[in-house]
């Protein structure tokens, strides 16, 4: 895996039942690479969209790859607030309670590589 | 019937009612009524449709009603001003919603373009209000707001308008029947502020049904201060997750004054089967039983629940019914509590609820009612036969048997009237579709039209109502397409740009009268006459009165539109209208004043099941003539009767001559007409006002008879409308006055028909216009 081969993903405007399948596939396709997620276009973030993004963040953290959300639209941050969700902004990977793996450990990195 | 299908049928019936309510409310708003109750009623109508549609997975319907509801909620909240433009949009949306309901019911397709255009317009309307006071949450939801919640107790589903929801809820052992019980609790909740702990875990079905967790949370936020905590502990890594499954859960602390559990439950009303929900009041005992009940059914589909509850269907419905009184008493109790600040408000609410409380109704299969009507008909006949037997026995009028029979007769009559009243329905059910029709035609023709309806509450037999729809539709189309001028023409004629079409119903002497009038240009008589001449319907020399010319439009194949438009003039003209009205035993009349408009008047019997008739004897046969057609009866004098050719006779009655028709001969009972002086003449008036004198041998008397269809039981017979069974058990035929008035071809005729006042020059061919050509 080439860690420098950073990927950027522009989130679609509406993240709901119809679009999460595609988003999930897109995310899996860029797995293992540093990811920048552009949330500038998001006008509606649903529960399904949120969980895909959270899972992606956990996954990237588990992979010890940078995961960054940039240019969040107001609707996007508004929805995160509504859901009581973290803003997904921290660049440094931050594991969820679910992810037992320490993201910064070399072991984890090697495990994934 | 499969119970699920039965519930679905009920749902669609209720949809119709909700749609009517919706349209009625929107029209009232358009008319300038700003009563918040109306806005609420409109909102509830869409809300209920959406709720039921969700339970039945009617996705297109859910989607559209969702968008619609959002816009309505913003209006309800005062975020959007309901101006005329908005209301026009809402009315058109109501039309599309009706299309969706019908498509879902009948399996048709909705005009997708129109539907999505309307949905976009609604979304634009909703987002146009710019977020306003709701900036704290994502504005992106403004076009997608979930069921706005009402804490008003009178808003809780009432069995009359929401019984599907109540039924579903009672099946799931959840909300609706709890509604009454919960109402007791708030009475003790006078504490100014309290905290509720709500735990909410969506199941996969919630998202699948196009519901959205975020919107529920947002709705929750409207109840009070809310602190939401996300529980992502169930979330797997990306590669292990199904993006459409539900992994997240939330717990929320809701704080605010006077929040009731029912209000919180209402937020989750439509997702109840699709989520785990736990609502606990701070300091209260651990989870209520209800929550665990929901938990147990958490991931079960609503449909499965309905099926599981098949056996419980009827009791469940029955259980749902009494909630209204229970709630009312709970509310009364609430007002009695010493919560003084609240008292006035609650009292007002109780009053509103009382005002709203519609009379209790049940739904009955029409077949059962018809069977009852049939049986009562038999009873009437049987009772008449019994009376006759008693009379034949020579008992005195004053004997106790005879008097008992009189009582029985009275009672029978009352039973019959009451049973007929069951079938009677307000004409509203057919009138309510016309505002939409008018809007659509107005849009198509580019005319400005206002529809005024009057007497929607007038009741008439259901069968009559059903069969009125097509003729009325046609006449309203005509009134707008042919009757009204374009706005420019109207201005030039010194009239307001907006044309008025008036639809009125009223009872008049045992019949229902429906008037369709417009304030348009009126009938263009020279043109009507010219067309009739061009089409060979009348001879160019015919000298016709204004009335006669007006009546030409009822002739078959007559269409005044120079070009056949989309709207009217498709070859099925007023003759079809006239025929269908006649087949209902009705009459149609037209009056028109050039430049001022036309009025069509329909007169119909209130019921098709009984008839007031004159029982007569002709050539040894007993016949019944409908009383409504008879103007008077007289004994002809020899000097009044004149021969007209070898076969026809006319009789002079008060300075006019009318054809004298021997019933015996026209029905083929005899070939030789007895001298008119030996019989009785019934002066009758047919459709369009034409008159004739019908010769019968004797009059037996007036009687109300039960109509039995001859067509259904035997076959159609010319000149006979139906049959009945008399007291002696014999079948008597009911005359079809109009058919009898038309002379048989060999008896001459062919010229233009003439109403009675036409004078001698035209009476030779007393035909009704509809039958010519």
Q: Could you explain how this protein is built, in words?
A:
The complex is a heterodimer of chains A (113) and B (773). With 113 residues, chain A is α/β, with parallel strands linked by helices. Chain A has one domain: Transcription Regulator spoIIAA (2-Layer Sandwich). Helix content of chain A is 40%, strand content 14%. Chain A is built from 4 helices and 5 strands. Chain A has helices at residues 17-29, 47-62, 74-82, 106-112, and strands at residues 7-10, 14-15, 35-38, 44-45, 67-70. In chain A, the strands form 2 sheets. Chain A has a 3-stranded parallel sheet. Chain A has a two-stranded parallel ribbon with strand order 2-4. In chain A, helix 1 (17-29) packs parallel to helix 2 (47-62). Chain B is of the alpha+beta class and 773 residues long. The longest helix of chain B is centred in the first third of the chain and has 28 residues, at 3-30. Among the domains of chain B are: 366-425; 427-605, Heat Shock Protein 90, CATH 3.30.565; 610-771, OB fold (Dihydrolipoamide Acetyltransferase, E2P), CATH 2.40.50. In chain B, helix 14 packs antiparallel against helix 15 and helix 16 packs antiparallel against helix 17. Chain B is elongated. In chain B, 45% of the residues lie in helices and 19% in strands. The interface between A and B is large, with 41 and 38 residues.
Count the DSSP helices of chain B: 27
What's the CATH H-level superfamily name of the domain at 427-605 in chain B? Histidine kinase-like ATPase, C-terminal domain
Poorly predicted sequence stretches spanning 5 or more consecutive residues of chain A: 91-113
CATH class of chain A: Alpha Beta
CATH topology value of chain A:
Transcription Regulator spoIIAA
How far the N terminus sits from the C terminus of chain B, by CA atoms, comes to 49 Å
Tell me the distance between the termini of chain A. 7 Å
Which bin fits the share of residues in helices of chain A? Answer: 25-40%
In short:
Chain A is of the alpha/beta class and 113 residues long.
């Amino acid at each position: 895996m080439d860690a420098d081969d950073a990927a950027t993903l522009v989130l679609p405007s509406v993240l709901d039942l119809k679009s999460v399948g595609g988003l999930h596939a897109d995310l899996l396709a860029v797995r293992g690479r540093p990811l920048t997620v552009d949330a500038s276009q998001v006008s509606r973030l649903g529960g399904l969209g949120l969980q895909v993004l959270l899972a992606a963040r956990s996954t990237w953290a588990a992979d010890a790859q940078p995961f960054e959300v940039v240019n969040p639209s107001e609707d996007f941050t508004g929805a995160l607030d509504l859901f009581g969700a973290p803003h997904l902004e921290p660049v440094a990977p931050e594991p969820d309670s679910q992810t037992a793996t320490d993201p910064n450990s070399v072991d984890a990195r090697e495990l994934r590589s | 019937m499969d119970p699920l299908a039965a519930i679905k049928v009920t749902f669609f019936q209720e949809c119709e009612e909700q749609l009517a309510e919706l349209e009625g409310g929107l029209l009232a708003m358009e008319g300038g009524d700003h009563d918040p109750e109306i806005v609420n009623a409109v909102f509830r109508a869409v809300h209920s449709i959406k709720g039921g549609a969700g339970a039945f997975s009617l996705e297109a319907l859910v989607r559209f009603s969702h968008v619609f509801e959002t816009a309505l909620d913003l209006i309800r909240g005062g975020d959007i001003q309901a101006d005329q433009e908005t209301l026009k949009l809402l009315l058109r949306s109501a039309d599309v919603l009706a299309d969706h309901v019908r498509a879902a019911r009948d399996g048709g397709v909705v005009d997708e373009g129109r539907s999505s255009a309307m949905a976009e317009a609604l979304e634009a309307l909703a987002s146009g209000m710019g977020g306003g006071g709701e900036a704290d949450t994502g504005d992106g939801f403004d076009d997608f707001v979930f069921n706005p919640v009402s804490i008003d107790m009178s808003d809780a589903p009432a069995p009359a308008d929401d019984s599907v929801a109540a039924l579903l809820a009672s099946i799931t052992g959840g909300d609706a029947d709890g509604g009454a019980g919960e109402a007791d609790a708030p009475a003790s909740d006078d504490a100014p502020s309290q905290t509720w702990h709500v735990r909410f875990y969506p199941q996969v079905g919630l998202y699948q049904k196009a519901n959205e967790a975020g919107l529920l949370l947002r709705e929750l936020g409207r109840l009070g201060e809310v602190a939401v905590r996300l529980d992502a502990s169930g979330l797997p890594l990306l590669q292990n997750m199904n993006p459409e499954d539900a992994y997240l859960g939330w717990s929320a602390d809701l704080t605010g004054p006077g929040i009731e559990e029912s209000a919180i439950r209402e937020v989750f009303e439509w997702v109840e089967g699709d989520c785990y929900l736990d609502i606990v009041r701070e300091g209260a005992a651990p989870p209520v039983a209800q929550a665990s009940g929901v938990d147990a059914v958490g991931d079960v589909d609503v449909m499965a629940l309905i099926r599981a509850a098949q056996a419980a269907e009827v009791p469940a419905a029955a259980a749902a019914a009494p909630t209204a009184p229970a709630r009312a008493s709970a509310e009364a109790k609430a007002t009695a509590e010493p919560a003084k600040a609240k008292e006035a408000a609650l009292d007002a609410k109780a009053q509103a609820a009382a005002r709203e409380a519609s009379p209790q109704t049940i739904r009955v299969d029409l077949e059962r009612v018809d069977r009852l009507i049939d049986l009562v008909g038999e009873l009437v006949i049987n009772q008449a036969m019994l009376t006759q037997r008693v009379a034949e026995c020579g008992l005195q009028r004053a004997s106790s048997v005879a008097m008992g029979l009189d009582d029985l007769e009275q009672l029978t009559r009352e039973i019959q009237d009451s049973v007929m009243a069951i079938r009677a329905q307000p004409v509203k059910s057919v009138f309510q579709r016309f505002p939409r029709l008018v809007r659509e035609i107005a849009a198509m023709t580019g005319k400005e039209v206002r529809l005024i309806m009057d007497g929607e509450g007038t009741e008439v037999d259901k069968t009559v109502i059903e069969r009125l729809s097509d003729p009325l539709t046609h006449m309203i189309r005509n009134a707008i397409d042919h009757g009204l001028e374009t706005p420019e023409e109207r201005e030039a004629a010194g009239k307001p740009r907006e044309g008025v079409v008036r639809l009125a119903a009223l009872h008049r002497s045992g019949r229902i009268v429906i008037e369709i009038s417009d304030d348009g240009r009126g009938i263009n008589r020279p043109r009507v006459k010219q067309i009739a001449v061009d089409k060979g319907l009348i001879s160019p020399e015919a000298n016709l009165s204004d009335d006669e010319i007006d009546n030409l439009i009822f002739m078959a194949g007559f269409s005044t539109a120079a070009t056949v438009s989309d709207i009217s003039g498709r070859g099925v003209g007023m003759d079809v209208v006239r025929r269908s009205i006649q087949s209902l035993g009705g009459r149609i009349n037209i009056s028109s004043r050039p430049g001022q408009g036309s009025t069509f008047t329909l007169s119909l019997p209130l019921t098709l099941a009984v008839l007031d008739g004159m029982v007569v004897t002709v050539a040894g046969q007993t016949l019944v003539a409908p009383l409504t057609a008879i103007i008077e009866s007289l004994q002809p004098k020899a000097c009044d009767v004149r021969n007209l050719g070898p076969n026809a006779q006319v009789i002079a009655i008060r300075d006019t001559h009318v054809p004298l028709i021997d019933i015996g001969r026209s029905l083929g009972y005899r070939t030789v007409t007895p001298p008119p002086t030996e019989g009785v003449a019934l002066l009758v008036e047919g459709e369009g006002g034409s008159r004739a004198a019908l010769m019968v041998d004797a009059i037996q008397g007036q009687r109300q008879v039960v109509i039995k269809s001859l067509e259904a039981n035997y076959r159609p017979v010319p000149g006979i409308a139906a049959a009945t069974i008399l007291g002696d058990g014999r079948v008597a035929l009911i005359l079809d006055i109009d058919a009898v008035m038309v002379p048989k071809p060999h008896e001459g005729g062919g010229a233009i028909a003439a109403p009675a006042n036409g004078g001698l020059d035209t009476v030779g061919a007393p035909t009704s216009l509809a039958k010519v050509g």
